[in-house]
Amino acid sequence: MVNLELYRVFYTVARCGSLTRAAEELYISQPAVSQSIKQLETQLGVSLFNRTRRGMELSAQGGKVIFAEVERALGLLNEAENRLAEMSASATGTIRIGASDTIFEYFLADKIVDFHERFPAVKIELMADFTPDTIEKLKANRCDVAFVNLPIEVDPELELEGNCMRLNDVFIAGEKFSELQGETVSLAKLKKYPLIMMDKNTVARRSFDAFLSRVGVELSPSIEVGSWDLMKRLVEKGMGVGVIPREYATAKLEEGSLFEVETDPVLPARSVGMLLPKNQPVSFALHSFIEYFRKEN
What we know:
By secondary structure, the chain is an alpha/beta fold. Helix content is 44%, strand content 25%. The longest helix is centred in the first third of the chain and has 27 residues, at 63-89.
């Protein structure tokens, strides 16, 4: 396998004529430069340089034979990188992003603002919906990229990049149920309390119900809601004990209006994933967003 960095070191040494000057230009140590040259010579089975009092000279049967081709190849790579950089600086077009209101608020908002500041010519359309509906929009080409709660079923039409954001489901309660604070509670004990859960058609609820089935516990909600904000409001008012990702309740937990109920067993972690249509052309604007997102994440 070709190691481009070894050839970059070779080219720099040949151009500088000195291990020391090459090391300074590459911002690495002189022993590292020497080791890279030795490694490349071993791979090619030929000596690339003659060590002289004046410095490093290309050998007639090695370095001089490949220098022009290496210089040309590195030049082409630099041109490609520069072209992409120029395109990135002037990315235009429209990106349609699908996600739930909660994912937009707690995960994507700051990233979208930062991306817009870097690429102001790119128009961004936000399409808020529950995960199942967001997936359908993506498959129907009504959005370009989707961020969804996991797990979801494998779909041959979609490409999933998971674990973009970790979600740790927990039980939360307010002052009315203060007897639950500071102790580890069994899931069975929570049957005595009014429970507030997400709507049964949501990914979060299906994941929670599947976990309860695995551990052999039945818990039924007194109230079902369609948003995490409503759940927090009802729990804070003493309407029941809620089940929510800790990341979505951090502010309330830190201010003390809600507390986390420790349970045995603890609820399993979930995550948010990025979905793209499989085998579909990607606009440069969308490509820029995906690459930005991967770097920032």
